[in-house]
Amino acid sequence: MPDFTPAVETLLRTIAEAGDKGAQFAQAPRARYRLAGTDYVVNQRSFYPLTGGEYVTDGSNDMAPVRLTDRGREWIRQHPVPHGGSRGPYRPRRTRSARQAPAPRPARFGYAGGFSAELVERTVFVICPDNDHGGVALPVYGWEERAVARHPTLHEIEGPTISGGYALRWRADARTDADLLVQSLAIVRAEPARSS
Predict the structure, then answer these.
(1) Cβ neighbours of residue 155 under 8 Å, at least 6 residues apart?
(2) Closest CA to 56 of 65, 64, 46, 66
(3) Which residues of the chain have pLDDT under 50?
(4) Cα(151)–Cα(128) distance, rounded to whole angstroms?
(5) 3-state secondary structure the chain
(6) Per-residue pLDDT tens for 39-71?
């Protein structure tokens, strides 16, 4: 049995999915047919290999539904669609509101000095820059208590982590995420770096 082009194969599988009642097509502009009730439009020439090879039939009536013949069923049986295959019956596109919304991306900010920060649920993770000696330029010890005392909405500071970062936890702060990112970076950057 022949291998069809992707357009012809999709058409054949779409007609097969319609079952015994057949797939109703209506003429569309530019020598095309539209599947009733859908956005699926197919060129007339895609029907030629299917009707000429007697894989589908409309009973010699252009207004009748197109049905699969026994030969068409046999072709589909011999050519299963591989799991995850791209070709298959026409599927109408879901509306944009029904599509899965992308996961929200955490707010990020970076300074030219190599510092970067990311905010997740009012906690700002500040990563200190590499000091070119295999480590990071961390602030001197004891700055965390001073920073918490100076900023009433800064709840606590955890760190440094192995990657050379700190977690600044804010609570009951009305500022925007962007403002908290900038403030957190400014706090860490204002501290003198440890000597390596």
Answers:
(1) 148, 169, 170, 171
(2) 66
(3) 84-86
(4) 21
(5) CCCCCHHHHHHHHHHHHCHHHCECEEEECCCEEEECCCCCEEEHHHCHHHHHCCCEECCCCCCCCEEECHHHHHHHHHCCCCCCCCCCCCCCCCCHHHCCCCCCCCEEEECCCCCEEEEECCEEEEECCECCCCCECCECCCHHHHHHHHCCCEEEEECCCCCCEEEEEECCCCCCHHHHHHHHHHHHHHCCECCC
(6) 888 888 888 888 888 889 888 777 788 888 999
Contact 81, 13 (CB under 8 A): yes
Q: Residue 172: what residue type? A: A
Rounded to 5 degrees, what angle do the CA atoms 51, 52, 55 make? 50
**Spatial distance between the Cα atoms of 145 and 190, rounded to a whole number of angstroms:** 14
Phi/psi of residue 136, nearest 5 degrees: -130, 155
Nearest to 115 by CA among 194, 186, 167: 186
Task: State residue 111's pLDDT score.
Answer: 61
Whole-model pTM: value is: 0.44
Amino acid at position 190, single letter: A
